[in-house]
């Protein structure tokens, strides 16, 4: 353990000049095989630690702007070792008293920010936003489509459906397929110019769905879409759902954590009115993966997701422990106590640490948009609501028809170079570059270096296709 600790400290103290090191699958298979043949257990461990640190993305590098995860607070990371050696599984109080208590304490912090009475809502933790979305849709289905848990969807005689924004996370399509609702029956809601769900367009789409015989029981909005970070107009959508008796869920995995910031919280106006929403703490609350907070506005609604009895684990219904623990209201039985990472960081540093970091990330993203817009060879594709910015690099002479393919080639070249790590996505059928600001140490100078680096790599490693002239 001391050797691992020394290696990690040295890794964190290093000023990395490369954000990522690209590898092939075959190289990784070979490297792991070499480690396995290192000899003694001590040698295997030593070599693996070195390999792990050599192949991990450098989250503290100034050129790391690629994915929605950041370096974590050291105390939160160290806690993982403690909870592995002295486990407290989080779903049941008798073996995990501390994570169940921490759930309630973090819930109280967020309820105060939401303006919810303490007795009204319920928060549970899940392992990732995909599972949180699935759990919320299950609660919505069981609440709005009566008898579906026992008798199945066919017994209702209805064509039940879910409505999603066009940029919704892929996990929602998966959840709808898992629940047997049929992905062909998803009602796709139109977006406005800022890639947010258009309330009037949503109203018309719901009307068309009803005319086609679909009964939409749940509408899912985004607080920070994965592609662009767009935050849907939550107050308008919550009102629309209330008018029609539709469950409103918000996938807030990316930007739901803006609740902790006085400056950013107004961007989530209306989230306090929805039926459920989730936040990925391992994205924007800077704790180890995976830790997702799933909130229900109605405390009783949390119990609608599941209707089971298992005397060997579940406490007596309605008792003090049953109300306190989460095993009966989430999928997982033996669950990692990830909430302790967040509680410990919150207890040590308070809400202000998270607020300052989030404010800085969004400020840097807005600055990046302004800097790129001032350059004639860059095109910005979204006004950032959060810490995500999509753009294209279009050198002089690059034909319009080849711009999308050029972004894909440029992304691959950047990955090979390693000094700057961006991601990519597709907007309206065209590949674009995607910048995700997660490093709290990022500065204007780093953004300027990124812009220069993109130009340099594009010029050195990719030759734009020649401009064809029609004769």
Automatic annotation (TrEMBL):
Keywords: Decarboxylase, Lyase, Pyridoxal phosphate. The keyword Ligase does not apply. GO terms for molecular function: carboxy-lyase activity; pyridoxal phosphate binding. GO terms for biological process: carboxylic acid metabolic process. SUPFAM superfamilies: PLP-dependent transferases. It holds the Pfam family Pyridoxal_deC. Its cofactor is pyridoxal 5'-phosphate. GO terms for cellular component: cytoplasm. The modification N6-(pyridoxal phosphate)lysine is found at residue 283. The keyword Lyase applies. InterPro entries: PyrdxlP-dep_de-COase (IPR002129), PyrdxlP-dep_Trfase (IPR015424), PyrdxlP-dep_Trfase_major (IPR015421), PyrdxlP-dep_Trfase_small (IPR015422). Belongs to the group II decarboxylase family. This is Diaminobutyrate decarboxylase.
């Amino acid at each position: 353990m001391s050797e691992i600790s020394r290696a990690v400290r040295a890794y964190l103290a290093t000023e990395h000049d490369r954000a990522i090191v690209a590898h092939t699958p075959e190289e990784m298979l070979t490297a792991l095989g070499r480690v396995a043949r290192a000899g003694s257990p001590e040698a295997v461990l030593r070599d693996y630690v070195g390999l792990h640190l050599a192949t991990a993305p450098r989250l503290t590098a100034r050129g790391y702007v690629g994915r929605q995860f950041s370096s974590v607070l050291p105390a939160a990371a160290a806690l993982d070792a403690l909870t592995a050696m002295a486990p407290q599984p989080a779903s049941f109080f008798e073996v995990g008293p501390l994570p169940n208590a921490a759930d309630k304490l973090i819930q109280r912090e967020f309820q105060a920010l939401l303006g919810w009475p303490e007795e009204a809502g319920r928060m549970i933790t899940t392992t990732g936003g995909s599972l949180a979305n699935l759990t919320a849709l299950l609660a919505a289905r069981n609440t709005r489509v009566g008898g579906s848990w026992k008798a199945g969807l066919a017994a209702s005689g209805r064509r039940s459906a879910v409505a999603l924004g066009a940029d919704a996370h892929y996990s929602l399509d998966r959840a709808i397929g898992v629940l047997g609702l049929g992905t062909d029956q998803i009602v796709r809601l139109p977006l406005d110019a800022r890639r947010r769900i258009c309330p009037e367009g949503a109203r018309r789409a719901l009307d068309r769905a009803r005319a086609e015989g679909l009964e939409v029981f749940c509408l899912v909005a985004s607080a920070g879409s994965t592609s662009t970070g767009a935050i849907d107009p939550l107050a308008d959508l919550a009102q629309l759902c209330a008018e029609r008796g539709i469950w409103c869920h918000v996938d807030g995995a990316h930007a739901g954590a803006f609740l902790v910031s006085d400056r950013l919280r107004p961007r989530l106006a209306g989230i306090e009115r929805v039926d459920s929403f989730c936040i990925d703490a391992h994205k924007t609350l800077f704790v180890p993966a995976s830790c997702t907070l799933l909130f229900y506005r109605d405390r009783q609604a949390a119990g609608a997701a599941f209707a089971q009895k298992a005397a060997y684990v579940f406490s007596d219904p309605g008792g003090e422990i049953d109300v306190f623990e989460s095993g009966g209201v989430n999928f997982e039985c033996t669950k990692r106590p990830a909430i302790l990472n967040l509680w410990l960081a919150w207890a040590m540093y308070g809400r202000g640490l998270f607020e300052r970091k989030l404010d800085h990330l969004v400020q840097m993203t807005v600055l990046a948009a302004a800097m790129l817009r001032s350059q004639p060879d860059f095109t910005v594709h979204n006004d950032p609501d959060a810490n995500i910015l999509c753009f294209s690099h279009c050198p002089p002479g690059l034909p319009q028809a080849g711009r999308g393919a050029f972004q894909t080639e440029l992304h691959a070249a950047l990955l090979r170079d390693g000094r700057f790590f961006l991601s990519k996505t597709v907007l309206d059928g065209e590949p674009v570059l995607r910048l995700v600001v997660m490093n709290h140490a990022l500065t204007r100078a780093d953004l300027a270096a990124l812009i220069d680096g993109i130009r340099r790599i594009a010029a050195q490693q990719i030759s734009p296709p020649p401009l064809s002239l029609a004769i």
